[in-house]
From TrEMBL:
Catalyses which reaction(s): guanosine(1835) in 23S rRNA + S-adenosyl-L-methionine = N(2)-methylguanosine(1835) in 23S rRNA + S-adenosyl-L-homocysteine + H(+)
Organism: Pseudomonas schmalbachii
Name of protein: Ribosomal RNA large subunit methyltransferase G
Keyword list, A-Z: Cytoplasm, Methyltransferase, rRNA processing, S-adenosyl-L-methionine, Transferase
InterPro entries (UniProt xref): DNA_methylase_N6_adenine_CS, RLMG, RlmG_N, RsmC/RlmG, SAM-dependent_MTases_sf, Small_mtfrase_dom
Gene field: rlmG
Domain of life: Bacteria
Length: 374
């Protein structure tokens, strides 16, 4: 496993979720470049330092003990990785304070390190919240691998914080140095809302929610085929996003009990708001988590899932396969996993390796809806 060497620490880091023989490492050249630059700038021990979007804790763990570090991001798996990597490297669990992106990190901060996220709406929301949270003379740096650094990221930094200067490239990474200025406080364009006709719902979406501007086409294909007549079934929406699958199902199944799980704190926040708007105080369990990893065995009757096919910029079916395994472990014998997926992903064959029966419920030229029975 590669070791992250920086002027601050030598760390053995792991990604989350863990997988055997993982070919990917928990840090990249942009993390190394940021840490090198912080060291060159100097970091007084009492500095209040904010790290945004630290995928697996590489930045925050490296700087733990060298400053008062707060880390904030929208990924439960990132917060879990930070916890595990602090423990793995004999660092105190409270050496870094983690703040979910659904909440605001309270400054003032002397240093801010930003990993440019895949979703620029998340960056925009974070920059708006940073206004008024910077100490006099604060230094702000953003970093990314060049292939993941859109021009619009620099435009957002300049719009909300101040002038931006780009660094030279180093190992295919680049930094953006921001000179904070006093700017009029901006109001956030988030959350956004859109309306569904069937069922009739207005859905609220915080900045980092997948398909924030409208219903994604996979979910649109799934909605007409959700299971009915569930009685008092225990149903989970795995990777719930804004909660639309669970809410639509719950409207048709008034006695069923629902659990909604997503690894995005902003998705969970959106799902809570949307459930309350559509279903009032009807009991529900909505949580940020590593899928159904903490769900007891034999505790669910039905799992609904529109699985993701990427983690940040990494595309693959590892997360989907893991969700299918989690669903199988949580379902009772005879319980059902209902999914929608792109035809070309071949989920039918994968599900057959885990479930005793797999049936195609519906299909269109792009998507299939499958029901797998444990």
């Amino acid at each position: 496993m590669p070791i992250l060497n920086s002027p601050f620490a030598q760390l053995d880091l792991i990604r989350q979720p863990e997988q055997q023989n993982d070919p990917l490492q928990a840090f990249d050249a942009a993390d190394e470049y940021l840490l090198k630059q912080v060291a060159e700038d100097g970091l007084p021990a009492d500095s209040r330092l904010l790290v945004l979007n630290d995928s697996f804790g590489a930045l925050a763990a490296s700087l733990a003990g060298h400053a008062r570090v707060t880390s904030s991001g929208d990924s439960f798996l990132a917060s879990l990785a930070l916890q595990k990597n602090l423990a793995r490297n004999d660092l105190a669990a409270d050496a870094v304070r983690f703040v979910p992106a659904s909440e605001s990190a309270e400054g003032p901060f002397d240093r801010v390190l930003i990993r440019i996220p895949k979703t620029l709406a998340l960056l925009e929301e974070q920059l708006i919240r940073l206004q008024g949270q910077l100490a006099p003379g604060a230094r702000v740096m953003a970093g990314a691998m060049i292939k993941h650094l859109p021009r619009a990221a620099g435009d957002l930094l300049e719009k909300y914080l101040g002038p931006v200067q780009a660094s030279l490239a180093e190992k295919k990474a680049r930094l953006l140095f921001v000179t904070p200025q006093d700017k009029p406080h901006a109001s956030s364009p988030y959350p956004t809302r859109y309306t569904l006709d069937t069922p009739r719902l207005e859905l609220l979406n915080h900045a980092n929610v997948f398909c924030r501007e409208g219903l994604d086409i996979g979910t649109r294909a799934f909605l007409p085929h959700l299971p009915r007549n569930l009685g008092r079934a225990r149903v989970a929406d795995l990777g719930c996003g804004n909660g639309v699958l669970a809410i639509a199902s719950a409207l048709d199944n008034p006695e069923a009990h629902y659990t909604l799980v997503d690894e995005s704190y902003m998705a969970v926040q959106s799902a809570r708001d949307n459930w309350q708007a559509a279903l009032g105080d009807r009991p529900v369990d909505i949580r940020a988590g590593d899928g159904l990893a903490g769900q007891p065995a034999d505790s669910l009757d039905v799992v609904l899932c529109n699985p993701p096919f990427h983690q940040q910029q990494v595309v693959g079916d590892f997360l989907a396969w893991r969700m299918f395994q989690q669903a199988r472990n949580a379902l009772v014998t005879g319980g059902q996993l209902w999914i929608v997926g792109n035809r070309h992903l071949g989920y039918h064959a994968k599900l057959k390796r885990l479930f005793r029966g797999v049936e195609q419920v519906a299909a269109n030229p792009k998507f299939v809806v499958l029901k797998a029975t444990r």
